[in-house]
Amino acid sequence: MNRRNFLYKSAIGTLGLSMAPTLFTGCGNSATPTKAKGKERLELSFEPYDLKLRHAFNLAKNSRTHTPDVQVQLRYGDYIGYGEASMPPYLGETQESVCRFLSQLDLAQFTDPFRMEEILDYIDSIAPDNRAAKASVDIALHDLLGKIMGQPWYKIWGLSPEKAPDTSFTIGIDTEEVVRQKLKEASPYNILKIKMGLDNDKELVRIIRSETDRPICVDANQGWSDKVYALEMIEWLKEQNCLFVEQPMPKEMIDEQAWLHERASLPLIADEFLQRLPDVQRAYGLYDGINIKLMKSTGMHEAYKMAILARALDMKVMVGCMTETSCAVSAAAQLSPLVDWADLDGNLLISNDLFDGMKIVDGKITLPDRPGIGVVPLE
Length: 379
Ligand code: MG
Description:
Bound molecules: magnesium ion
Oligomer: single chain
Shape: globular
Helix content: 25-40%
Largest sheet: 8 strands, parallel
Distance between the termini: 6 Å
Order of helices and strands: EEEEHHHHEHEHEHEHEHEHHEHEEEEE
Strand order of the largest sheet: 5-6-7-8-9-10-11-12
Number of strands: 16
């Protein structure tokens, strides 16, 4: 793990990118911490990290081989919480914007890390948006608190780990040869997720169906802007053993989405349409469910509230991720016993993971019985 470069400490108080880097120290783990002594303060540190994708990611609107990321540590006494911000370009955040945001935080003002509402409200008040940056601290804070309590978050939330669902495995838009290769890699998974939104959508499904009859779910990534075509595709997909369709139309096409929602016979799940807690109410009546991602929701605290609200509204709940290390993926997995569907394969899509964390066993999310978010750094 190359964790020796480009570490910035936010407590210094100036903008991160102009600061002299400080070395990460003691980044092993906090497996045997001594108890924090009462006058400790929260100390935040962070460094940019480039996630290398195993396969170029071809989506309806772009293609890429790397995802920019920032790794975060939050210390309190001898405890270390790990967090992460992952920034696929369409979200509008960058390593620079995340480091700048984190540099503005003065977390040393907090002596009690359990005042989570107060700490997260403060972070949220620094600037609007910056959701991945906020998520990185939220995840690290959850990891820290779980370690202090000695419990994983699924237990703190009262969830049963055996209720964690299968995760889907993503097959991107690609040449037939690459799709067949990816299907081989996907053999341990019980649900395949297919990215759509190009002209050859049906062809991709036909290739997959020539190899396997496992259920699929489809993410159109806003790729269908004609509502009649979208409905036709959805009804065709239903015959192909498709479970649901994620973000069929551009998020701004509210009236068309309402039209589609009235007619479609598969559940329609909001992804790009929705970011944070107030958006769940906006999605109600337009979509059948929501896809919660920590990098959109500002982290685990709000993600949990979103899942509870969606449940109360009788909506389906899905938890997803970006390409991320096992840090943020394991954090999201803590929520997974609460959801109908999970798409937590982001760590499997990169070749330079930094953590050991949640595992997929026989296609199913398996939560480690470790405190916090359940991760240990790989050395
Ligand atoms: Mg999506």
